[in-house]
Design a protein that fits this description.
Length: 543
């Protein structure tokens, strides 16, 4: 079945109109209200002239024929309304990492050619500072966040837009080909916009499949599925600027369930998170690996909460260690921990459930539909029990490509035996029992607290300091973050610089979460004869 997100949501709203869809602070919106508010936003965008100008059949995989809307927001109902409203208007929403500094934002907005931005008031000064260099950006929609920050010149108020525009059905019927765009760093180096047909990402990661079952086959099954959750609640931990949180939200919407956004919407606050589960009697919650698990577990040591209704803790986006899984089971014995893996380029690929009966493990995943392992040379599929170490891959519902990058699209989405695959760069071993051992990225990507950090980008920022002769960046294990960034630095002869000096320079060019947690000084950086950094050596130094 191929269907658009608006078709799906019209069906859900008709099936369970009075189920609560979004709970955030003092706001409680039903599916009917959520859909109507999203339509009002859509109609405003349509009246302003934004939409689709070229259909998918006229375009190559790395091209877009739609206008793009930047969602520069913390968590809140506006983020999810911004996504759904964009789909109704046939414009393509994309995520903005709110930790970016001006230099990074400028790259992102130029790369995406965004014509519209929906932003929280707090970000107005940073946005205004780069607007003169963004001729494509025409419409700014200001979301009041209580900060009292003056809107950027010419901005319109978000709630005024919703209240002043009728929630009529869209005038231009949305298509299953309409885009879902997810910007990612990681293996792509500088952020790249991954282009998905909305019909494909819906099936691959956003509610179009029952857990462990086939795709929903008809719009009637969508309606039936929307009634299956019984109006249960899930508490959202990670930021909606990441795919994991978007996917978890839409999966729950698909079951007619409500998404609870904790009151502290800028970062994880463990007491707020656990209190939300207790207050709403949530059945599930979503976290991001050890970076979320550790502070939540520590909070459970400090205070007791009624978590009797919590049945599933879902984790994705970063590794969740067996140690922390076991501690969750010790503290909440009736819960199941669903550790999932996937990427912006593949959707949800595999899961590893743990409970008190099965015990815990990490890195071992049961593949979902289309998940597979391909050979290192990208010429064939590997079979269960094959001793060769290959690449974790996905076929079937896959992205179209990377926005504006035909070469990268061809490399990441190769055709093998006449079939197109997504191969984002994780090493994997296909075990004889049919499970897949995922070993991680075969690159210099560092995954710190769910954030993918590209080593070369950090190196480039540190090299801006005049005392630096050479630098290489690697990750080392961290109980809190999974991995943390460490820089190995060689200074110029006779020059001096402290850790603080180098980190202060890097902070001018990259977001704070990318900054090194430590600096290791060496007389010389070891490189290959061709000048390539020796990352194996670098890892030895940082450990």
């Amino acid at each position: 079945m191929d269907c658009s997100f608006p078709q799906v949501f019209d069906t859900i709203a008709e099936a369970v109109p009075d189920n609560e869809a979004i709970i955030f602070r003092d706001r409680r919106y039903t599916f009917r209200q959520f859909t109507e508010r999203s339509r009002s936003l859509a109609n405003y965008l349509t009246v302003r002239g934004y939409g689709c100008s070229r259909e998918r059949s006229e375009l190559q995989g790395h091209e877009s024929g739609q206008d793009h809307v930047a969602l520069y927001l913390y968590n809140g109902n506006e983020y999810l309304e911004g996504m759904l409203g964009s789909f109704y208007a046939r414009v393509a929403p994309f995520n903005v990492n709110y930790r970016y500094v001006e230099e990074e934002l400028l790259y992102l907005f130029k790369n995406s050619a965004a014509r519209v931005v929906i932003y929280h008031a707090e970000f107005a000064p940073r946005l205004e500072a780069i607007m003169d260099d963004l001729p494509d950006l025409e419409l700014c929609i200001h979301v009041d966040d209580g900060s009292g920050t003056t809107p950027v010149p010419g901005a319109v108020d978000y709630e005024d837009v919703i209240e002043s525009t009728a929630p009529d059905p869209p005038s231009d019927e949305p298509s299953p080909d309409d885009l879902y765009i997810l910007y990612t760093g990681g293996t792509t180096g500088m952020p790249k916009g991954v282009l998905w047909r909305s019909a494909d990402i819906y099936m691959a990661a956003m509610g179009g499949r029952r857990f462990g079952a086939d795709e929903l086959a008809s719009i009637e099954e969508v309606a039936e599925h929307a009634k299956s959750g019984g109006g249960a609640k899930t508490v959202l931990g990670p930021p909606l600027m990441h795919g994991a949180a978007q996917w978890a939200s839409f999966i729950n919407f698909g079951m007619g369930n409500g998404v609870v956004i904790p009151s502290e919407n800028k970062k994880l606050e463990p007491h707020d998170f656990l209190s939300s589960i207790e207050r709403e009697k949530a059945m599930t919650c979503t976290i991001v690996g050890d970076a979320f698990a550790r502070p939540i577990l520590d909070q459970l040591d400090k205070q007791s909460y009624d978590l009797s209704g919590l049945l599933v803790i879902g984790s994705g986006g970063a590794p969740l260690s067996a140690k922390n899984k076991q501690e969750f089971l010790d503290k909440i014995p009736h819960v199941t921990i669903l550790d999932s893996i996937g990427s912006s380029e593949t959707g949800a690929q595999a899961s590893n459930p743990s409970n008190k009966d099965s015990g815990v493990s990490t890195g071992d995943f049961k593949p979902a539909a289309g998940a597979c392992v391909v050979s290192e040379d990208l010429t064939r599929l590997l079979e269960p029990g094959d001793e060769e170490m290959g690449w974790f891959a996905q076929t079937g519902r896959c992205p179209l490509g990377y926005l504006g990058d035909a070469d990268k699209t061809a490399r990441t989405f190769p055709t093998i035996g006449g079939i197109r695959y997504a191969v984002p760069g994780d090493r994997a071993h296909y075990r004889a029992d049919g499970s897949i051992e995922v070993l991680g990225r075969d690159s210099v990507t560092i995954n710190s607290g769910g954030e993918k950090i590209f080593a070369e980008e950090v190196e480039g920022a540190i090299k801006q300091h005049p005392a630096v002769f050479d630098v290489v960046v690697a990750g080392r294990d961290s109980d809190r973050w999974g991995q943390e960034v460490v820089a190995v630095v060689a200074l110029r002869e006779g020059a001096t610089a402290t850790d603080t000096d180098l980190i202060a320079e890097a902070e001018k060019h990259i977001a704070r979460y990318k900054l090194p947690k430590a600096i290791v000084f060496r007389d010389e950086i070891q490189r290959s004869p061709s000048g390539k950094a020796d990352y194996r050596w670098a890892k030895e130094q940082v450990i």
